[in-house]
UniProtKB/TrEMBL annotation:
PANTHER family: BLL6575 PROTEIN
Annotated InterPro entries: ABATE (IPR010852), ABATE_dom_sf (IPR023286), Znf_CGNR (IPR021005)
Protein name (Swiss-Prot/TrEMBL): CGNR zinc finger domain-containing protein
Highest taxon of the lineage: Bacteria
Zinc finger CGNR domain segment(s): 147-190
Phylogenetic lineage: Bacteria, Pseudomonadati, Myxococcota, Myxococcia, Myxococcales
């Protein structure tokens, strides 16, 4: 079960996991938010199941349908709108709050301890998305909401939970956006010194 940051790969099964929190990682399934053309990684109901599995959830046998896809997309956009309100220090949009709260009220996956002693969730895809919605409520409506950030990388819109001690993390990933920034800054310094 993956709720927060882990040492797993940042990209799994074509999805990015740089947010440090499942709710923020869900928002990354729409790429190119700051660009003229976006790409939705949730185009079919089966993509929702793939994302849940890539996120580390054990998804019970589910017949994916368009309702599941719609739920995942509504949840993703509600979380994104609310998180951006946190980032900007603005009032959270009422429609996004209503959507998130409506999904969080649905029956959620139940936690249990597996035979190996590890925690996991039991539920179908809809119940797992509801769990993600509840986690989003706790994150975005809790005391650490001010630790939600948007990557400062050029053209990157990935949201992440800043767990740095100083609270000044700037990039979704040091191996991606952070490294590009450092390389660009190095080149600028080198050009100025010549």
């Amino acid at each position: 079960m993956r709720i927060s940051a882990s040492n797993q790969e940042e990209t799994r099964d074509g999805f990015r996991f740089r947010g440090g929190h499942a709710a923020l990682d869900l928002t990354a399934t729409l790429t190119g938010r700051l660009k003229p053309t976006q790409r939705d990684l949730l185009t079919r109901p089966e993509d929702v199941i793939r994302w849940l599995q890539a996120a580390g959830f054990e998804c019970a046998a589910t017949a994916p349908d368009d309702d599941l896809l719609g739920m995942a997309r509504r949840l993703r956009e509600a979380i994104y709108a609310l998180a951006m309100g946190c980032v900007a220090g603005q009032v959270r949009p009422a429609s996004a709050r209503a959507t998130l709260n409506d999904i969080a009220r649905l029956p959620a996956a139940a936690p249990e301890i597996g035979a190996d002693g590890s925690a996991r969730l039991r539920g179908d895809a809809s119940a797992l998305l509801t769990f993600v919605a509840r986690e989003a409520v706790l994150l975005l409506g809790g005391e650490v909401a001010d630790r939600v950030r948007q990557c400062e990388g050029d053209g990157c819109a990935i949201l992440f939970f800043d767990t740095s001690r100083s609270g000044d993390r700037r990039w979704c990933s040091m191996t991606a956006c952070g490294n590009r920034h450092k390389v660009a800054a190095f080149r600028q310094r080198k050009e100025k010194s010549q």
